């Protein structure tokens, strides 16, 4: 079973450059070469610290078997724990990876990003990627490994994310796609859903689309893109923004589905944004259909010195 489906394939770089400037190396793991240390690069010849590398990983996974991304108590299987264990086995020291986002149990990724530091300078990045993949289960893969500046942080350096939600619409449920799509057998009016999705664009207080567990003080976010498209047997909802509240994308999708079913009109989106009341929005869509497609960064935050180790 492949981790990334063809229905997930979007050209992240093109989409982001059109909306979030200067993120050309964000999604494909390419290193950007610079003349010297900058933007977080530290000239370690001027310090007493041992030399080390900051490595950026792009990771894909089918999240069905895992209790989310973040490492939890011993014995609870998570993607982060699998990545850390594989990297540690290859590099022969304890590794702590910093993820760009904490995907929930059952949520998938085609372009999760994580970084970690290593004092092992001997293992080439291409070899690191291959060796880690040989130690990872079939539903987790390191897509790329690239050097990044000392100060790069997968979460704090991010300027945006793209999520995609897959809704399978034929009457019969798809056993081969179990836990990879959400099966909605009721007919959906995609044009109405698309009209509603456009109302989400821009900078708004999205607290009405957040689960009550999200206690952040600032609930204002900017949505750059919210598309609803038909792709064969599926309806795809793609959302790109500068950040997301807890369950925000799944709550948006749940609301769009209710609108597509005819329960509400597109103006329901305006009502949720105006009232900031979670009860006015639709139910939270299941995790099965949600994919973290891409995490976006500014090109300058990925600059590495010309003598940096090349990507793998």
Model description:
There is one protein chain. By secondary structure, the protein is an alpha+beta fold. 20% of the residues lie in helices and 26% in strands. A hairpin with a 2-residue loop joins strand 9 and strand 10 (234-241).
Write the layout of secondary structure elements.
Blueprint (H helix, E strand, L loop, with lengths): L11 H8 L12 E3 L18 E9 L17 H13 L6 E2 L8 E11 L6 H11 L4 E9 L9 E11 L13 E2 L6 H9 L3 E4 L14 E12 L2 E8 L6 H14 L6 H8 L14 E8 L5 E3 L7
Parallel strand pairs: 1-12, 4-11, 6-7
Antiparallel strand pairs: 2-4, 2-5, 3-4, 6-10, 6-11, 8-9, 9-10
Helix pairs in contact: 2-3, 4-5
Our count of domains comes out at: 2
State the CATH topology of the largest domain.
Alpha-Beta Plaits
> Which CATH architecture of the largest domain would you pick?
2-Layer Sandwich
The proportion of residues forming helix, as a percent range, comes to: 10-25%
Radius of gyration over C-alpha positions, nearest whole angstrom: 20 Å
Unreliable residue stretches = 4-11, 13-26, 28-46
Query: How many helix segments?
Result: 6
